[in-house]
Write a structure and sequence with these properties.
Blueprint: E1 5-8, E2 15-16, H1 17-28, H2 34-43, H3 45-53, H4 62-76, H5 84-88, E3 95-96, H6 100-108, E4 112-117, H7 121-131, E5 139-140, H8 141-144, H9 151-160, E6 168-172, H10 175-183, E7 187-190, E8 213-214, H11 218-224
Parallel strand pairs: 1-4, 1-6, 4-5, 6-7, 7-8
Antiparallel strand pairs: 2-3
Helix pairs in contact: 1-2, 2-4, 6-11
């Protein structure tokens, strides 16, 4: 069945967060190793969300978690930020992978396209403006008020589009994201980003599940559906 909608992981799948964040860190904090700082900042991402997923904290938008995590990492690197909010906003200025904008424009002619990201609606909207991502609407964590891979994030995306999960395809470069979506009845597409974590990446180099589609990039994905 051709999907009526495709929903996308964004950080890593659609945009190169590591290089983009490091570039801004290098400008603001030239005294630190920018890639190490970017990796350390990203490493706080899952623990911060897990406190919410586990029920130990109420829902907090990712924008605020990024600012909190930035303070943690800045202290670890022994640096002081004159304007933390400016660097925290770097997550709204991430550069898309080369195939993404052209691929999304082709996919948009075939189906509804929307992010299913842990980023807030505000963050995803500004990121789309920055990178030219042609979404039809913005879905994801803010709709569910929870974080992937909790099932409600995926099923709420389907519900607000008034589609059955089987009519919706989750697109991600992360096998665990697809496993969670498949468990909710969605179709799945794996598009690897083998340098998301740099040249020494060891995870998500290959599909680890029986996904609906495996494609080298978004243009190949558009040809496959």
């Amino acid at each position: 069945m051709r999907p009526a909608a495709l929903i996308f992981d964004v950080f890593g799948t659609c945009v190169d967060w590591r290089t983009s964040i490091a570039r801004e860190v290098e400008t603001v904090l030239p005294q630190v190793n920018a890639l190490q700082f970017a990796d350390a900042w990203r490493a706080e991402y899952q623990p911060a969300m897990e406190r919410i997923r586990s029920g130990n904290r109420g829902y907090v938008a990712l924008d605020d978690l990024h600012r909190e995590n930035l303070a943690i990492v800045a202290e670890r690197f022994s640096v002081e930020l004159k304007d933390p909010s400016d660097l925290a906003g770097a997550w709204e200025r991430l550069v898309p992978w080369p195939d993404v904008v052209s691929g999304l424009n082709v996919l948009k002619r075939k189906a509804i396209i929307a992010p299913c990201s842990n980023g807030s609606i505000a963050l995803m909207t500004r990121l789309a403006k920055f990178g030219g991502l042609p979404w039809d609407c913005i879905l994801g964590a803010d709709i569910a008020r929870d974080y992937k891979p909790k099932p409600l994030v995926y099923t709420n995306c389907c519900a607000v589009l008034r589609l059955d999960p089987a009519q919706v395809m989750m697109v991600a470069a992360h096998n665990d994201d697809l496993l969670a979506a498949a468990g909710c009845g969605l179709q799945t597409a794996f598009v690897p980003r083998r340098r998301e974590h740099g040249p020494d990446q060891r995870t998500d180099l290959q599909p680890t599940g029986n996904w609906t589609v495996v494609a080298a990039d978004f243009m190949e994905l558009a040809q496959a559906i």
